[in-house]
Amino acid sequence: MALLEINGIDIAYGKQVTVKDCTITLDQAEICSIVGESGSGKTTVIRAVLGLLPGGGKVTKGDIIYDGRSLLSLNAREWRKLRGHDVSMIFQDSGAMMNQTRLIGKSFVEYIRTHEKISKKDAWKKGAEMLGRMRLPDPDRIMHSYPFQLSGGMRQRVGIAMGMTYEPKLLLADEPTSALDVTTQAQIVRQMMELRDEYGTSIIIVTHDIGVASYMGDKIVVMKNGQIEDQGGRKHILEESSNEYTRKLIGAVPSLGGKRYV
After folding, report:
1. What's the pLDDT tens digit per position in 48-57?
2. Where are the alpha helices (H) located in the chain, listed in sequence order?
3. Does domain 4-260 sit in CATH 3.40.50.300?
4. Which of 129, 148, 152, 210 has the highest Cβ tally under 10 A?
5. How far apart (Å, rounded) are the C-alpha atoms in residues 66 and 253?
6. Distance between CA 49 and CA 40 in Å, rounded?
7. What angle do CA 138, 171, 168 make, to 5 degrees?
8. Is the dihedral angle over the CA atoms 66, 68, 72, 77 positive or is it negative?
9. How confident is the model at residue 191, as a pLDDT?
10. 124 Cβ contact partners less than 8 Å away, ≥ 6 residues apart
11. What's this model's pTM, rounded to 2 decimal places?
12. Which residues of 135-162 are buried (b: 16+ CB within 10 A; e: fewer)?
């Protein structure tokens, strides 16, 4: 049985349908890359999985099944238990999602104590340990820092550390590398791949970068105008697909010495 099944969902804001007939399945320890231009509905899909559609957005058709259970039937208490524990999310700039006037340590402690009964002292220690596991230097200094005092790459690692605190089965990543320089992008991508290898975490990564999508994804979903244009295994999408839009996306990747690195 698949860990996650998105079964023919429509997502609407009022009368406007922004995502139509979306179907994606994800197995344990599998990585799915969702790629497409801005406004194609990529982020909307993963926000629907976590029940975090903004502005009154709703799934109006189909179902989302996680670990054999419909997510559309969860109440507020059940969502609180699921989010951050079984299913976590990394945002485009994790630091921007934090309170800029609070120490990272205080935000991390609050996050941990939301999910388990633990003292502030032990939560602080647990947070610092997670930062160390994400290979951040001097975790205690980072715990005593404000988000704006860290680089973009360090903020993303803090976001990953928070997201992986409870070793979730499913990690949703929304453009986690787009605000970073190329070197830092590569470090974050490698670190996310290691999460799959070490913890067996399933990952859905949303990106407009076909290079990142092809490097990480066991399967790739191509979206355009709120619909799935193409999907399949990495080899099929990169080498075999005859879909015109898919070929254009791949063709847009710059080549070096006649070789295109996707």
Report:
1. 999 999 888 9
2. 42-49, 76-82, 104-115, 120-133, 139-143, 152-163, 182-199, 210-216, 234-235, 244-251
3. yes
4. 210
5. 34
6. 16
7. 75
8. negative
9. 85
10. 105, 108, 109, 143
11. 0.89
12. ebeebeebbebbbeebebbbbbbbbbbb
Q: Where are the domains of the chain?
A: 4-260
Closest CA to 17 of 229, 228, 226: 226
Using alpha carbons only, give the angle 179, 211, 132 rounded to the nearest 5 degrees: 50
Contacts of 53-56 with CB under 8 Å at 24 or more apart are: 53/11, 55/13, 56/13, 56/14
Instruction: Give the pLDDT band (50/70/90) at residue 257.
Output: low
- 107 has pLDDT over 70: yes
> Which residue, 187, 205, 206, 203, is CA-closest to 195?
203
Tokens representing 64 are 């989302």
Name the residue with tokens 């404000």: 146
CA distance 96 to 240: 39
Distance, in Å, from the CA atom of 24 to the CA atom of 112, rounded to the nearest integer, reads 31
Over the stretch 136-151, which tens digit does the pLDDT of each residue have?
A: 889 999 999 999 999 8
Query: Do 31 and 245 contact (CB within 8 A), yes or no?
Result: no
Q: Supply the DSSP symbol for 41.
A: S
Tokens standing for residue 241: 């697909």
d(CA 213, CA 219): 9
